[in-house]
Amino acid sequence: MTTFDAACLLVSRSQTADEGPIIRMSQRARALRAAGMDVVSMTLGEPDFDTPATIQAAATAAMQSGFTHYSPVMGIPELRAALSRKLKAENGLDYGPDDICLANGAKQAIANAILSIIGPGDEVIMLAPFWVSYEITVRFAGGTPIVLHAGIEEDYKVPAQRIAQAITPRTKLIIVNSPSNPTGAVWTRAELAALADLVKAHPQLMVMSDEIYEYIIFDGAMTSIGALPGMGERTITVNGFSKGFAMTGWRLGYAAAPAPIARAMARMQSAISAGANQFVQRAAIAALEGPRDAVEIMRQAYLRRRDQVLAGLKALPGVRIGNIPATFYAFPDVSALLGRRAGNHVIDSTETLCDWLLDEHGLATVPGSAFGAPGSLRLSFACSETEIDKALSRLRAALARLS
After folding, report:
1. Which neighbouring-strand residues pair with 329?
2. C-alpha gyration radius of the chain
3. What is the pLDDT of residues 41-59, one digit of tens each?
4. How far does CA 381 lie from the centroid of its chain?
5. What is the reported pLDDT for 304?
6. Helices then strands (H, E): number in the chain?
7. What is the pLDDT of residue 1?
């Protein structure tokens, strides 16, 4: 009888279809905790707050009213109308309900958008540090990521003139994430206007603007690039409910785009899954149109934690950290520590550093290579101030061992 090995059927994309280092480090942290180790985890970008009670109540009421069946692929009309109003009032974006497609999380909305417009031979400019799923999805679509880097000196934002030099006749999309995961950078209106001028100078170039962290800003103001003159038809705006409303497990995101692209995104949504959960969509209306007290309470908590993390990291020799004007992430540059030793350990990469911090000091972080910046670490401070204190203490003790 012939021996069958199912692994021989796997294609290359199945080997890269996850968030790599993020998932690996979070899984390792969980496994060590299960084995009895005291681990402080700063890996996942998940609010440690429960979903506000008003939103939970709206979901319960929707279920009790019978909204437990399939929803339209693009989303229920009531929510798309509410999102149209929200985008106009809060972001200055003029998308009608038929220009908006709901998805099972912002990640799926991003995939719907990229798979709708990117194919083999198309180039996508990605501004590093970037969220890992952008690159994965572009490669899924057959596109070519063109990665441009910016560090602390540029506030993690690639200047327009360098973006201009990377544009070719094959460039079809530029991905902007403001506020940014993993750096917390917020693009100013002037910076986005310079980028918009580049885009409008090319006949087949668009922007995908990921705005999922818009409610977690500490310094500066939110600007949606799609609201700038001439950019409505050139922009796919992606957002969702996970971060600002602490609704990660509810899996609801959306993308708004010119009508032909919105319809294509709906076809992708239909082919890969179906309409997003109906009672969650009903709860999302309550989130948009109800009180925002809990959202502000969470933002204030993240602000206190931001200040706590910044103070702690700035006190560590060999660690460089820029401002964190938004989000709940710190992205310190630790490249000066690479090549040092801790006993028999040679810290030759941030992957090695992360493994050593977890194994020897019970601190779980994510290497910057996951975000296109291999000299940095990402620390999520979506955890209690007590946990942050423990994390900073462990990091300080660990780095003191390096020689």
Report:
1. 380
2. 21
3. 999 899 999 999 999 999 9
4. 14
5. 98
6. 12, 14
7. 66
As a whole number of angstroms, the distance between CA 112 and CA 266 comes to 8
What residues have CB less than 8 Å from 131, skipping those under 6 apart? 177, 181, 182, 210, 371
Strand order in the sheet with 100-103: 100-103, 253-256, 235-240, 206-210, 171-177, 123-128, 144-149
Q: Is-contact 93 87, C-beta < 8 A?
A: yes
Residue whose tokens read 């972080």: 365
Are both 91 and 165 inside the same structural domain? yes
Best CA proximity match to 308, nearest among 216, 365, 384: 384
Query: What sign results for the dihedral spanned by CA atoms 52, 58, 61, 66?
Result: negative
Same-domain pairing of 345 and 235: no
Distance, in Å, from the CA atom of 348 to the CA atom of 346, rounded to the nearest integer, reads 6
The pLDDT value given to residue 5: 85
Segments forming the whole domain that contains residue 301 = 6-50+294-400
Structure tokens at 185: 């950078």
Peptide bond into 129 cis (omega under 30): yes
CB 316 within 8 A of CB 396: yes
Q: Facing residues of 193 across strands?
A: none
CATH number of the domain within which 227 lies: 3.40.640.10
282 with 299, same domain?
Answer: no
Backbone dihedral angles phi then psi of residue 210, each to the nearest 5 degrees: -90, 115
CB atoms within 10 A of CB 103: 30
**Alpha carbon distance 98, 251 (integer Å):** 21
- From CA 64, how far away is CA 345, in angstroms rounded? 58
User: What domain count does the chain have?
Assistant: 2
| Cis peptide preceding 179, ω within 30 of 0 | yes
For the cut 70, the answer to whether the pLDDT of residue 17 exceeds it is no
Among 252, 268, 289, the domain boundary falls at 289
Q: Tell me, yes or no, whether 61 lies in a domain.
A: no
Residues 325 and 270 both lie in one domain: no
Tokens representing residue 393 in the block:
């203490």
- Residue 346, domain member (yes or no): yes
Q: Which residues, including other chains, have CB under 8 Å from residue 320's CB and lie 6 or more apart?
A: 152, 332, 333, 334, 336
54 neighbors 290 (Cβ within 8 angstroms): yes
